[in-house]
Amino acid sequence: MIVRSRFAPSPTGSMHIGNLRTALYAWLYARKTKGVFILRIEDTDRERSTDQAIQVILDSMQLLNLTYDEGPFYQTKRMDRYREITDQLLKTGHAYRCYCSKERLEALRADQMKNKQKPRYDRCCRDLKEKKEGSFVARFRTPDEGSIKFDDGVRGLVEFQNSELDDLVLVRSDGVPTYNFAVVVDDVDMKVTHVIRGADHINNTPRQINIFNALGMRPPIYAHLPMILGNDGKRLSKRHGALGVLQYREEGILPAALLNYLMRLGWSHGDQEIFSMEEMIEFFDFNKLQKSPATFDPDKLSWLNQHYLKTLPTEVVAKELQWQMDQKQIDMSGGPLLAEVVRVQAERCKTLNEMAEKSRYFYEEVTQYDEQAASKHLTPDIKPVLQEIATQLAQLPAWEKEAIHQVIIAVSEAHQLKLGKVAQPIRVAVTGNTISPPIDETLALIGREKTLKRLQRAMIYK
RNA sequence: GCUCCCUUCGUCUAGUGGUCUAGGACGUCGCCCUCUCACGGCGGGAACAGGGGUUCGAGUCCCCUAGGGAGCGCCA
């Protein structure tokens, strides 16, 4: 059997990391089994679905390189098919017309809640003999007895009593199918073999299996992934800092880090923390997933991100950094190679956004000093030292790190100053602040012309 | 309220009846390295939710309690 898994988001909210992890696992499983990965947009909620949200989903998938083999399919383009199946179910008696008004249903629900009962449809229209006038919905005739069992990839054997289930609406009064119905029809038509989705769908599963049964089709294999919680223990939402995938790019989180973090959240492979894409595909398995929900930890994501900033080839990171520089409209002409900047900055940055901000002085003029730094380090008595360094640097035959280092050492010794006493003033002069990579490295990257200019400027400070 | 599910350091987890005086990672604290910031190195503190069983033996099996999660829509 060829595995066919799908990711089926609804374009109603942002593509947050919960969705992303679902997509990742469904994708990994397809890749691991050399199966087919399908993207399907569940846009039957006409009120809330937006084209913009669809675009975000598409962009997110592309950004993380979660390639799909089929799709994207849109449910709104399959209305004829849903109608066809609806007629079939109506004809076979597995579904029936319900004429109850929304008002009646609301009152019914309110009443049940008040009496501390489980809110559900009272099956008022279930046995109506003839068709009535007016608008109606199609409801599913849920079996009265028995239970639905399925072997969940994550949770093992799961069982629901049919008596707990409602006669759910299959088709709205405007003819648009509801989620539970459309999913089944789509999964049948798209020959989906593995349904991998969030645990919030586990209660829907028996309803859907009943529909499969009514259609005479075999249900797929299910795997319900545990939820991701915010740090307040509540289900993750925008409110809890659950940023969209695209926002992580803006923050400067590498796709590799995001994927690695999500992979490891609620899943493990012994004590291993770092996984390449190949390893993720090789090691992934549902039975290693945790059953309980996991809390999202931004700190660990940051750590992973820095790990990748440090270990990925500098050119690869540089490409991402370029994007940040473009966003910030930093003019890079005449500055060092970005890969060089990455080489010296990776170990001092958690994100690419931070790296871009901390690297401005390689490209932009230093127009003002951090006040505290300047008053502490750009003192009158250091100016002769700076002058001497400037003079010697100007005469250097080649502008390279080692030679620069020697100049600074020599001048420091000549003035009987510790290296730190000299390095900090230089650092303030060329970066405007007290923080930068090693001073020789920093000057080497900034370049001779800019370095000398900045040293001169520092000497006329105050 | 009802149904279902879950419960190891602050967080992510290892652990499938003896090898657990419970291991790793992030974070945190201390020390070292050091021209700043970092990186790195070394070390510390930190958990089997509680109570009953079963067993020679329980983090591991069973039950109860507590806590948490999901669902109960003409949302997905």
Brief summary of the model shown:
This protein has 462 residues and is mainly alpha-helical.
Structure description:
This protein has 462 residues and is mostly helical. It is 46% helix and 11% strand. The protein is built from 19 helices and twelve strands. It has helices at residues 17-32, 51-63, 79-92, 102-114, 179-189, 205-215, 245-251, 255-264, 277-283, 298-311, 314-327, 338-345, 352-358, 371-377, 383-395, 401-414, 419-431, 439-446, 448-459, and strands spanning 4-7, 36-41, 70-74, 95-98, 137-140, 147-152, 156-161, 169-171, 194-198, 221-225, 228-229, 294-295. The strands form five sheets. Strands 1-2-3 form a three-stranded parallel β-sheet, with helices on one face. It has a three-stranded antiparallel β-sheet with strand order 4-5-8. Strand 1, helix 1 and strand 2 (36-41) form a beta-alpha-beta unit. Helix 16 crosses helix 17 (419-431). It starts with a strand and ends with a helix. The structure holds one RNA strand of 76 nucleotides.
The Cα radius of gyration reads 31 Å
Tell the overall outline: elongated
Question: What is the overall pLDDT average?
Answer: 92
Count of DSSP H/I helices: 19
